[in-house]
Amino acid sequence: MAPGYEVVRPARERGLDLGTSRRSKEYYHHRHRDLERRRDNGRSKGRDLSNGYSHGRSPHQPPRRRPSGRTEDSGPSEVSSGSGSGEPLLKDKDKERRENGVPGASKEDAKTSPSKKRKHSPVTRDRNDSKLQARDAVSGIREINPVAAEILMYHPHPLLDLSSPSSIAGVHSPMNLDVSVDSQKAQGHEEIRIMDEQEEEYPTTRNILKSRWADADVEEEKVFVPKKRVSLVDSIERGSIKKVTSPELGEVLVYNSVGSSSRSSGSGVVQGSANRNLEVDMGDSMDVDKEADDDSPAGHRLYSDSESDVCRSRSPDHTLSPHRCINMLQGCRTVDEFERLNTINEGTYGIVFRVRDKRTNEIVALKKVKMEKEKEGFPLTSLREINILLSFHHPSIVEVKEVVVGSGDKDIFMVMEYMEHDLKGVMETMKQPYSQSEVKCLMLQLLEGVKYLHDNWVLHRDLKTSNILMNNRGELKICDFGLSRQYGSPSKPYTQLVVTLWYRAPELLLGAKEYSTAIDMWSLGCIMAELLSKGPLFNGKSEIDQLDKIFKTLGTPNEDIWPGYSKLPGATIKFGKQTFNRLRHKFRAVSFTGGPTLSEAGFDLLNRLLTYDPEKRISADDALNHEWFCELPLPRSKDFMPTFPALNEQDRRFKKHMKSPDPLEEQLMKEQGSIADHGLFD
Ligand SMILES: Nc1ncnc2c1ncn2[C@@H]1O[C@H](COP(=O)(O)OP(=O)(O)OP(=O)(O)O)[C@@H](O)[C@H]1O
């Protein structure tokens, strides 16, 4: 790695630090008023919550809106040493016991009223009705079809909108894609139906040559695109897409008949598209942006209502999605319309370039979908990523502007907004870790992005610092949705081979076949710790080593603190017994040795993110309302975040850093025998 860059802190920030500028005074006055208001609210809410709700929950947290309400009682990894709200400080030993919770708190925790336990999926299943119902944050219950997305493409009319939530969202599922087109020309062409994907089974042995989404029915996982095709568009036109088995984004139905083409009732015209002829079923679709809008910011967070305010401002325009379309009538643009400036990085699934759009002069990032591992077709992982990113619009999610095709017939590129760095690269160049107020700014943006994903039924499944992009305006955006997928309720078995090892939740490591949004929250806990300490929290070399590191720090879980733990396949493995949560040793309230510091409230949030029992692990929504974000030091404004020379103006492919192999690499290493430990379940 090149020598570390100095953090370039803007002069205005120095002013803020000295507390002398008028702006900073206004800022603190404003924040103080805001805090006072929130404390008042909190006091009244606190009284409401006092029965049966243990310490550590922010008084600002709104009543839970999830249908089943188990309390978030504390497990060994989640028991805080105080709420940060006036609770007397404990002596170290006592604190250690409380943080750990195994001997003491866990028993209490085990008494948690089942009626108050948090349910992860915001979906309820009505036993008398095969349809699922989702409780919308504002508008109440919505019907959900668990096997969701259908993309209806009317062959050969080459018009496809993969763009807006309103067009992508299907009948019941947030991720449905139901595109109908005027298909007068569609007669006489064969029907190609891409079937519902079998859920990913628990993987036994995976072969790297196969799609990593594939299990027994690997063939069902693919969308075949013959090699000779000119483009994705062309492939679709020629009926080369044979099938999709995903119940979600990748599920494609291609019809050729006019009559079957349209779900016409309530259809509207896609707006903002280059081509406005595309009719989509508006009535049935879930409007992601509307939902984001409905999920009004009111009442659950700090708000930035001035330019100088903290970073929690939700830009109002993200609710007004610019509907991005692949206009298949005109075809995709080709990559020739971009001038290559440099290669940024090469991941497992794609190579990312910094390029200039010759038409607009805009600097953008191009991610080339790697096809070589997918011998027979267009990788479903990429199709999912493209669909998700085209349909989502949020300030904390990287924007995909369009899809372009390579001049060499077969390559597909995603055109993304360009970001100067990723968090991993930034941390490698920093000499000092981020301060608490900077971490708050980053965590808030991250949590908002993850909340948006979870509200829209998507699990990211690979949150890590290299998948979090940053720019020099202090903005953070989540990228790399190659492993992400739609989720629903009731839980179904999914593959555990997700999430890069260091950020992988214990339930995945222990072989749980069902999991939900909590896996992303664990990753956020690891990221928060990494931001504070500038190093990975649990850098295991194998699954067992990873579990060992987690247990040594957070304490060995047991049935008391994690009901159901003993039934997990990995629970039979004997690990050394660690009876205390030692996380506080890594993040002291005050450090005289230069180690990372974290307030009681911050530590409470970290513990809640790193809670063993996924049912009790804090949700993104609740984390956003955690008191840590309301206490001093307040979250730093994005405007005052440190800036760095643009790392992505360099070719970063050959810079080798300590990194955790991602799930596909991990599998490859296992197949090659280069990981001594073959994992728990191989
Ligand atoms: N929009 C963007 N702007 C700038 N750089 C980007 C952008 N998207 C990705 N990158 C860079 O490229 C790297 C790899 O991107 P990405 O994670 O999407 O690819 P991948 O093949 O899926 O990687 P992985 O092996 O981590 O799964 C990122 O870590 C980041 O440094």
TrEMBL record:
PANTHER family noted in UniProt: CELL DIVISION PROTEIN KINASE, CYCLIN-DEPENDENT KINASE G-1
GO biological process: regulation of mitotic cell cycle
A GO CC term attached to the entry: nucleus
Name under which the protein is recorded: Protein kinase domain-containing protein
Low complexity bias spans: 74-88, 259-273
Composition bias type Acidic residues, residue spans: 281-296
Biological source species: Zizania palustris
Known catalytic reactions: L-threonyl-[protein] + ATP = O-phospho-L-threonyl-[protein] + ADP + H(+); L-seryl-[protein] + ATP = O-phospho-L-seryl-[protein] + ADP + H(+); [DNA-directed RNA polymerase] + ATP = phospho-[DNA-directed RNA polymerase] + ADP + H(+)
CDD domains associated with the record: STKc_CDC2L1
Molecular function GO terms recorded: ATP binding; cyclin-dependent protein serine/threonine kinase activity; RNA polymerase II CTD heptapeptide repeat kinase activity
Similarity annotation: Belongs to the protein kinase superfamily. CMGC Ser/Thr protein kinase family. CDC2/CDKX subfamily.
Domain Protein kinase stretches: 338-629
InterPro entries in UniProt: CDK, CDK11/PITSLRE_STKc, Prot_kinase_dom, Ser/Thr_kinase_AS
Extent of Basic and acidic residues compositional bias: 23-48, 89-111, 123-134
Sorted UniProt keywords: ATP-binding, Kinase, Nucleotide-binding, Phosphoprotein, Serine/threonine-protein kinase, Transferase
Stretch list, region Disordered: 1-137, 259-317, 655-682
